Amino acid sequence: MGREKLLNALLREAEELTANEAFTVIAPYYDELMAEVPYSYWVDYIHKITKHLGHSFETVLDLACGTGNVAIEFAKRGYRVVGVDKSEAMIREAIRKAMMQPELKLEFYCQDISELLLPMKFDLAVCLFDSLNYIIEPEALKKAFKATYDVLKPKCYFIFDMNSEYALEANLFTQNNLDSDDRLKYLWISSYDSETKLCRVDMYFQLQLEEGKILRFKEVHYQRAYAVDEVIAYLSDVGFKCEHVFDAYTFKAPTRRSTRIYYVAKRL
Ligand SMILES: C[S@@+](CC[C@H](N)C(=O)[O-])C[C@H]1O[C@@H](n2cnc3c(N)ncnc32)[C@H](O)[C@@H]1O
Questions:
Q1: C-alpha 71 to ligand 1 mean position (Å)
Q2: So what's the pLDDT on residue 212?
Q3: Which of 114, 156, 235, 240 has its CB 3.0 to 4.6 Å from that of 152, i.e. a possible disulfide?
Q4: pLDDT tens figures, 164-218
Q5: Domain 39-163+227-267 has CATH 1.10.287.370
Q6: 94 lines ligand 1 (CB under 6 A)
Q7: Which atom of ligand 1 is nearest to the CA of 114?
Q8: What is the fold of 3-26+166-224?
């Protein structure tokens, strides 16, 4: 199907498509969609940060782990890893992948970050790929920080990334792969409201199935922009000390045009 035809089909059907919740229908295809995401490089970066901090660790908690890509990457490096995510469909994928690699020390639980109930305490917690922007109520974000604080051992670290307000304002989520040969096509349209700091992304997908069949579906995602000072204040409200804020994948402070920001918080 040509680009114009595909675009029209997606948009024409858009109104009729059910607006599914985020990370439900897409879950079985999430890894296909994220095939180019450099998870291993992200875990290398976290290692560089922990090395810089002089923090050694054996256990890792991957918050909002999705289909488990970050968790699996840590587990492959010998760590004992627990992943949690509130989406049952995403956790199902993570468990399926873990079962195929029984040699890894990996467990997954379907839980909300703000209400963690875990059997152990951890040396390191991470939360990557703007997952915390999905917590759109500041009070819920504080609750998530408090729950994370409570499952970390003293003097241990919570390292996470967030999309910046600049990224959400610039509508960086408006993107598509309609010109690609991928069997999973997507068309994402985002709009940002500077009053509520909410970015709404309408995500349309088209999957080419076997025998010429086509599956079209839609998910609606909301992310909230949090200012750096706001995040640091929430962390300190629950007892963390935010030791570093980095422009992603560097050791430099973020600039006005940083799109992804890393926070390094220490549990006191
Ligand atoms: C962009 S995906 C990232 C997944 C994974 N971290 C990765 O790097 O592939 C965001 C994930 O955050 C999860 N999530 C959002 N809010 C959450 C919450 N309050 N508690 C647990 N998981 C949450 C979603 O279900 C989704 O799997």
A1: 12
A2: 85
A3: 156
A4: 999 999 999 999 999 999 999 999 999 999 999 999 999 999 999 887 899 999 9
A5: no
A6: no
A7: 19
A8: N-terminal domain of TfIIb (2.20.25)
